[in-house]
Amino acid sequence: MTIPETIPADSPAYGPPDSDARPEAGSTNPWVRVLDDIVSERRAKVPFPPGPGNFDFARTKRMAHDPLPILLSNYERYGPVFSIRMLHAKVVFMLGPEANTYVTVTHPHNFHWREGSFGDLIPLLGDGLLTIDGGYHDRARRIMMPAFHREQIEAAVEAMALEAAAAIERLTRGDAVDVYEWMRNLAMRIAMRALLGLDPDDAGHGASAAEHFERALGFYGTEYHLRLLRGPRSPWRRLIRSRAVLDRIVYAEIARRLANPDPGRRDILSLLLAARDEDGSGFSNEEVRDQLMTLMFAGHDTSTSTLSFLLYEVARNPHVLAALQAEQERVLGGEPPTPEQLEHDLPYLEMVVDEVLRLYPPAWIGPRRAVRDFEFGGRTVPAGAHVNYCSWASHRIPEIFGEPEAFIPERFTRERKASLPRGAYVPFGGGSRICIGKRFGQTEVKLVATMLLQRLRLELLPGRTMTIRQMPTLSPEGGLEMRVRERELPEPLG
Ligand code: HEM
Fold it and tell me: Is the CB of 141 under 6 A from ligand 1?
């Protein structure tokens, strides 16, 4: 293969300089990315870390469907940094507490997000937090942070509780229900209200936005080779059509809010339109659109999967269910929880959620592109390499989490959590780009779990096992069917 003239031989084939300006739109042609990967690897000035470097289709396939055993065995063999060839490219993995801390906290400037695989999201999300870097990212994050402060999330709890109560009402005792699908629908309705301020039952706006967002997301769940197609009925064309509908709805909503400003509105769209940076500047309409799409994307699958895995583990561990319900009785006495109670008064629930996110961190991989050569753990990593930290594998290192496969909420008592090595537990990432929706997502999961388990018990279907799908986020493969039962009342005291 010859390297095209358009990429000068002495300049890096990746990454614009860190800048405060909005980045230029790159190519959406996947072959350009493939070529860019090949060029970067050829130009590497320092060696890649060791690891299986030969082309092996079976390994690539296993990495796409069941990566955990491969990652953990390479960690044992090579230590915390190694390379694995996947299709045409060598990909670097960095695992364990020190590696997580290096990537997220102490050396984030060695990496870009946009030129890593988050860049694949640009056609739908545009330039939101997940796909921008440098000063442009930091400014956007400064403007957005106040919308995620405690008081604003408390306002969102109202929408969450309203939607959760209605969704629970629709569950019928005795029925088998796909709880993954149920929560996905609920999370989307919550997002419509809390993020966009739209009524999810309004066919012209909220319902249509929800439907087209799901359709657009479908693109990222399809097999890689189908995503390369560009024909009239291809997944790509469906994505583009749905994006156009979403854009119409979101821009119309922005125009409506600007024409009739209402300081009483607390949804994230209204907050972003009003938000200002320290110098008084705010977002353009296009920037608001891109950030909103990004929030919808980042918050949707993650909360859905966390609740599904929680219900799965609770059903498998009756003593955990009993302890959760005893705490609910003691603290809430049958009433729905307030935001303060969710945050401070339900420590066992908190431990259960922590343990669910240890075993099944939905955003399990943090994809980056190295923008300079660097050294870690006595190995070099060349500029241009794809580098991933991985919470899923890091959370299953037996020296740090004994009996890593077992579901043991007690690992996360306050004292034991505080004594974990720095960077050992990273379900929300870390450093200055830690998940901006952490409080939102935790509140949503805790609220829905509490309201659900106050009324009902979800039982696994006999003989059914769960397998995990990991793209684009961890989720139960093919959904998670469970039987809805009446909640058993606790033993009377005394
Ligand atoms: C249980 C729920 C959630 C989990 C486990 C989770 C996990 C994560 C992780 C691991 C990252 C960092 C990725 C990396 O380092 O590569 C991240 C970033 C992010 N998350 Fe979440 N997330 C959750 C919920 C949410 C929600 C509800 C929202 C929005 C409402 C959200 C918005 C974002 C955004 C915008 C970023 C990028 C932040 C930046 O780069 O400045 N997340 N999330």
Answer: yes
255 inside domain: yes
Dmax (CA) for the chain in angstroms is: 83
Q: What is the DSSP letter of 171?
A: -
- Ligand 1: centre distance to CA 298 (Å): 6
**CATH number of the domain residue 379 falls in:** 1.10.630.10
303 lines ligand 1 (CB under 6 A): yes
Q: How far is the CA of 426 from the centre of ligand 1 (A)?
A: 11
pLDDT per residue as tens digits for the range 32-68 = 888 888 988 999 999 999 999 888 888 888 888 899 9
The SS3 call for residue 386 is strand
Domain-embedded: residue 22: no
Give the residue among 129, 139, 487 at the shortest CA–CA distance from 326: 487
Q: What is the pLDDT of residues 387-407, one digit of tens each?
A: 999 999 999 999 999 999 999
Can you give the residue range of the structural domain that contains 368?
A: 30-486
List beta partners, residue 184.
none
360/196 Cα distance (integer angstroms): 28
SS3 of the chain: helix, strand, coil, percent, to 5: 55, 10, 35
| 453 three-class SS | helix
